[in-house]
TrEMBL record:
Keyword Hydrolase on entry: yes
SUPFAM superfamilies in alphabetical order: Six-hairpin glycosidases (SSF48208)
Entry annotated with the keyword Metal-binding: no
Entry binding sites for substrate: D119, D179, T239, R251, W255
GO terms, biological process: polysaccharide catabolic process
UniProt-recorded name of the protein: Glucuronyl hydrolase
Family note: Belongs to the glycosyl hydrolase 88 family.
Annotated catalytic residues: D119, D179
Family annotation (InterPro entries): 6-hairpin_glycosidase_sf (IPR008928), 6hp_glycosidase-like_sf (IPR012341), Glyco_hydro_88 (IPR010905), UG_Glycosaminoglycan_Hydrolase (IPR052369)
Keywords recorded for this protein, A-Z: Hydrolase
Entry GO MF terms: chondroitin hydrolase activity
Family annotation (Pfam families): Glyco_hydro_88 (PF07470)
Domain of life the protein comes from: Bacteria
């Protein structure tokens, strides 16, 4: 009977794009094999590039020569590889993955004091946040709280935003990028862990200001909004990684979708759900969204269909859509679309096992001018997260 049920589910999956648990297990088996390869390659690299440079701690991508590119802890992508290891542990329950996850997580501890960037959530929540969720290790809790304190120092009350970048001071006075919505998860967690509502208030204020100033009438987002911190006025609206200032950079749209969905999870404020649904409509109904739901790197890239795709944007979107499918009513469409993305990624964009230095997915695009058509560690992270969410939904379990 069990066999019949499994094969019926597999056939149903082929016909509808539904992703059954048997398929998710196969994809995690592959992810384990690839990650073992990556761990062996990372172990073989000299982590101290030269005497005055910081240690390389996590893989990010492949460089132009096709070699594995590691980054120091301060890089915005350093938390994704430890996060993937925690996801492998969550799925398999194997001690092997918990041991590796702990090893790569603690490499990032010093970042909890780094108030020079907004990327605290990416770095600390993907690593320590998942670690704490799965182990309840009190040492991880402290790192999350300190990380949130450091991030809060970047909040500018008059403008009502958390400053994103300190670089390019000649271009922007106080730039905020849509990506910053992803860092709010860390602040919400810090309020839950401490009872101190100041983190929550900063997160909600940032989300509301961003909703007002980053979004266009069609519910697409600008990438960079520059603020005057003395008056709170918006000075400029630009892009840094998309096609141009007026365009819709695909990963930015996905960060916004994920960010407003998580804001709704944490606050139950209907304006955040409305915003997430409007962003989902922009993406899913866009005339230049390809049939396989893996977007071009920018919805307005002029050479479509001869432009690069961004698999990382698709993976972030899929994970967010799974969560969005659990809110409101009649959201079967979001789940079906997320399943369709996962089916596309796993069939047409996945690395063959044993290749590409252990990355899971190929064909991501970091930006218009760099990291073009490469594997990116955050595509892999959100892919595994999406698979875990799909499994929980299949089993009718809560996502959080
Ligand atoms: N800074 C995050 C990104 O490139 O999407």
């Amino acid at each position: 009977m069990k066999k019949i049920t499994i094969s019926l589910l597999a056939v149903l999956g082929l016909l509808t794009g539904f992703v059954p648990n048997t398929r998710i297990k196969t994809l995690f088996d592959r992810a384990e094999q690839q990650t073992r390869l990556m761990l062996s390659e990372v172990a073989a690299i000299d982590k101290k590039p030269s005497s005055n440079k910081p240690l390389w701690v996590s893989p990010r991508t492949l460089n132009e020569a096709g070699a594995l590119q590691l980054v120091p802890a301060r890089d915005w992508t350093s938390g994704f590889f430890p996060g993937e290891l925690w996801y492998l542990y969550e799925f398999t329950g194997k001690k092997e993955w918990a041991t590796q996850a702990r090893f790569y997580t603690v490499n990032l501890e010093a970042e909890k004091m780094n108030a020079g960037t907004h990327d605290m959530g990416f770095k600390i929540y993907c690593s320590y946040g998942n670690g704490f969720r799965l182990t309840r290790d009190p040492a991880y809790r402290e790192v999350i709280i300190q990380g949130a304190k450091s991030l809060s120092k970047r909040f500018k009350p008059t403008a009502g935003i958390i400053r994103s970048w300190d670089h390019h001071k000649e271009v922007w006075q106080c730039p905020v990028i849509i990506d910053n919505m992803m860092n709010l998860e860390l602040l919400f967690a810090a309020t839950r862990l401490t009872g101190d509502s100041s983190f929550y208030k900063i997160a909600v204020t940032h989300a509301k200001t961003t909703l007002k100033n980053h979004y266009r009438p069609d519910h697409s987002s600008f990438h960079v909004v520059d603020y005057d911190t003395l008056t709170g006025k918006v000075l400029k609206k630009n892009t840094h990684q998309g096609f141009n200032d007026a365009s819709a950079w695909s990963r930015g749209q996905a960060w916004g979708l994920y960010g407003y969905t998580l804001c709704y999870r944490e606050t139950k404020d209907p304006q955040f759900l409305k915003q997430a649904e409007a962003i989902a409509r922009f993406m899913l109904d866009h005339p230049r969204m390809p049939a396989d739901l893996v977007p071009y790197y920018d919805y307005d890239a002029p050479g479509i269909p001869n432009e690069l795709r961004d698999v990382s944007a698709a993976a972030v979107m899929a994970s967010a859509l799974y969560e969005l499918s659990t809110y409101g009513s009649g959201n079967a469409r979001y789940r079906a679309k997320a399943d369709q993305v996962i089916t596309s990624l796993s069939k047409s964009y996945a690395s063959p096992v044993g290749k590409n230095h252990g990355f899971l997915l190929l064909h991501s695009t970091g930006a218009k001018t760099f990291e073009r058509d490469v594997p990116l560690v955050y595509a892999d992270y959100y892919y595994l997260e999406a698979l875990l969410r799909a499994k929980k939904l299949n089993e009718k379990k809560p996502l959080f």
